[in-house]
Design goal:
With 691 residues, this protein is an alpha/beta fold. It is built from 25 helices and 26 strands. It folds into 4 domains: 141 residues, Response regulator (Rossmann fold), CATH 3.40.50.2300; 108 residues, 2-Layer Sandwich (Beta-Lactamase); 157 residues, Alpha-Beta Plaits (2-Layer Sandwich); 231 residues, Alpha-Beta Barrel (TIM Barrel). 46% of the residues lie in helices and 24% in strands. The N and C termini lie far apart (125 Å). Its cofactor is Mg(2+).
Length: 691
């Protein structure tokens, strides 16, 4: 009922005349909506079907009298407040009516004066009903809160103004293992675990005192001394003058969530294979270490580690064995460092070590040597004995860089320098490395421009039969017509080109140029095969190998492989060699004698010829030792059914000596310089005329 709605009344009166009189009087008073029924049964039905603010019940009614109606209302929980109307002299009956549930009663007199008393009595009864309902609701709430306090799964405690516990619920007893009596009167410090520092509690109480509440995760201690993660919520209770008088705390067992969150955090911050910190965690710790070093005026060292030739181990033995090796190496690296140091797997076969509180370079030098020494012992995986080695770049804060990104960049440059110097070594960063990196970046852009602007050109140098001096092959040699530096030879640009991943693109261009030459080959010209050099990047692109094999039909094209390419386990592998062999490709090992490839390996390769390195050939006519070496190589090579060629022949004396030692063919300025397109046309035309 609200202030604008009329008061709804249900009137049970069996006398029609009295009923009409009652209805007329109430309508004249105003503010009432009255429903009139003639007996108790109809009255009960109306109460079940509709909602009324008050029921006016006459005692004398057929069927059910007023008392019986009140008792039925109570039994059926019809909660409409009721006012009993009784005949004159029925005061005792009225008392029984109130005991049966009526709020009030009114004695009807014959003169009808009771009708004047009815409106104020109705108002009084409604007020009384609201007070009773409010009191009942409050009692229900108290009962409900008590039930919740006793039965809820979360622990609850209330403290007094001195922050001592005045009440706790059973769940709190179960949570911490104390009896209720052991906690009442105690300060909640009873549960303090010692895990959190004073700063943690200062932040907590600052929030409670300024905001009136705090919520967060806290590690508490049980009665048995064990620790338990708790999700704790603390609120302040105030009196009417808004003074803090009590605190209420709700504690939830957070063990499962804490474990899940810790598991998720570890998954996000640790490498699943090696159990080391991952890149994300390392970067966070690096930023934190730099900030601390700034405050304390100390130094930190960042060591960038890379496993040498790890890819070849994966390729040769498989990723499962590679993973076991990585895990073993990670464990060794971690055991070498201090507790305060961090070792992280940065990705693939790269690791990063973070060393805080560094006082001198020698300290870092010692750690670097220990890390490299940790890999000296072989790793036994099944029937395989594997050995690993490290290259390492080292940068120091604040000497080399002032932030995380720059420090990583410096360590990476130092790592690259270590690898360039032969691997299995460490290198400290210096400003010179940044200068070199800038030069390499400029060179990379120049190479890309050269490829885009067609600044590379091909020359062809004949390979001749030493006996007849007739050409038996043409080797394609690439030159760079640099706009500022002039003509550059491969040794001046090829390392940078390969380092920046342009090797295969250059080879595709060379194949295109050679294809054009073959398509325009004059019928009168002597048909000799062309040969090109493959680089390490070419051997890993099946599309390029397929394109080459299609050109090699009818002995049109030979492929030259540098000796060091065959030595490298990450270079041309058996499956690539077999791919080319099955397609009839003729292979030539170039620069033989510059390394230490064995003759036994030559027996495992497909039919090919050897091209001796210049260092074995130069001035060989005056060097008996090298003559013996070449004779031995030629004899063994011929024994395997292979041909022997020499490169860089510059004199007749060298040519005669090589022929006598068993060399089959040669190339060099004695026979012809490298020829451009026009010069090659003339060379082939003249050769055709001589035939």
């Amino acid at each position: 009922m609200d202030a604008t709605s009329p008061t709804t009344l249900l009137c049970m009166e069996d006398d029609p005349g009295l009923g009409r009189l009652l209805l007329k009087h109430l309508e004249r008073a105003g503010g009432y909506a009255v429903t009139l029924v003639e007996d108790g049964l109809r009255g009960l039905a109306a109460l079940r079907e509709n909602r009324y603010d008050l029921a006016l019940i006459d005692y004398q009614m057929p069927g059910l009298n007023g008392l019986e109606v009140l008792r039925t209302m109570r039994e059926q929980r019809l909660e409409t407040p009721a006012l009993m109307l009784t005949g004159a002299g029925d005061e005792q009956l009225a008392v029984r009516a109130i005991q049966a549930g009526a709020l009030n009663y009114l004695v009807k007199d014959a003169a009808g004066e009771y009708l004047k008393q009815l409106p104020p009595l109705i108002a009084e009864s409604l007020e009384q009903s609201q007070r009773i309902r409010a009191a009942t609701d409050a009692e229900n709430r108290r009962w409900l809160l008590a039930r919740v306090f006793e039965s809820v799964d979360d622990g609850i405690l209330v403290t007094d103004a001195d922050n001592n516990m005045v009440t706790v619920n059973p769940a709190l007893c179960r949570l911490f293992g104390y009896d209720k009596g052991e906690m009442i009167g105690q300060n909640p410090r009873l549960f303090k675990s010692g895990v959190h520092d004073q700063a943690f509690y200062r932040r907590m109480w600052n929030s409670i005192n300024t905001k009136g509440n705090w919520q967060g995760e806290i590690i508490n201690r049980r009665k048995d001394g064990s620790h338990i993660p708790i999700l704790l919520s603390i609120s302040t209770l105030h009196d009417e003058r808004h003074k803090n008088i009590q605190h209420i705390a709700i504690a939830k067992d957070y063990t499962l969530q804490h474990s899940d969150r810790e598991r998720i955090w570890r998954q996000a911050n640790y490498d699943h294979l090696t159990r080391l910190a991952n890149r994300s965690l390392l970067m966070n710790q690096l930023r934190s270490s730099i900030n601390q070093a700034k405050r304390n005026g100390t130094s930190i060292a960042l060591l960038f580690l890379d496993l040498d030739d790890f890819k070849s181990i994966n390729d040769q033995y498989g990723h499962d064995i590679g993973d076991i090796l990585l895990s073993t190496i990670a464990s060794r690296l971690k055991s070498t460092l201090r507790e305060s140091d961090t070792i992280a797997r940065f990705g693939g076969d790269e690791f990063v070590a973070l060393l805080p509180n560094i006082t001198r370079d020698l300290q870092v030098e010692s750690v670097a040597r220990k890390l490299m020494q940790a890999l000296r012992a072989p790793v036994r995986v099944g029937n395989n004995t594997l050995r690993g080695s490290l290259s390492m770049g080292i940068a120091l804060y604040p000497r080399d860089a002032g932030n995380t990104d720059q420090l990583l960049k410096c360590a990476d440059l130092a790592l690259y320098s270590a690898k360039q110097k032969g691997r299995h070594r460490h290198c400290f960063y210096s400003q010179e490395l940044s200068t070199q990196a800038a030069d390499q970046t400029a060179m990379r852009q120049e190479i890309q421009d050269a490829l885009d602007r067609h600044q590379f050109h091909l020359y062809y140098q004949p390979v001749v039969d030493l006996g007849s001096r007739r050409p038996i092959a043409l080797e394609a040699l690439v030159r760079w017509d640099h706009p500022q530096r002039g003509e550059l030879f491969p040794g001046e640009f090829l390392p940078a080109l390969l380092r920046n991943g342009y090797g295969t693109r250059l080879t595709h261009w060379i194949i295109g140029e050679i294809t054009t030459l073959i398509e325009h080959w004059e019928p009168a010209w002597e048909r000799v095969p062309l040969s090109i050099n493959l680089n390490i990047q070419d051997t890993k692109e099946p599309g390029l190998l397929s394109r080459l094999s299609s050109l090699c039909a009818d002995n049109t094209l030979h492929i030259e492989l540098q000796e060091d390419l065959l030595q490298s386990k990450s270079g041309l592998l058996e499956k690539e060699i077999e791919f080319l062999r099955q397609r009839g490709v003729q292979l030539v090992i170039d620069n033989y004698g510059s390394g230490d490839i064995s003759l036994r390996l030559l027996g495992d390769l497909p039919p090919l010829s050897l091209k001796l390195a210049y260092r074995l050939i130069h001035a060989i006519d005056a060097d008996p030792v090298r003559q013996k070496m070449v004779r031995a190589i030629a004899g063994a090579t011929h024994g395997l059914g292979l041909k022997v060629s020499a490169t860089g022949v510059e004199s007749e004396a060298e040519a005669a000596t090589l022929l006598e030692l068993g060399c089959d063919s040669a190339q060099g300025f004695l026979f012809s310089k490298p020829l451009d397109g026009e010069e090659l046309t003339t060379y082939l035309a003249v050769g055709a005329q001589r035939r």
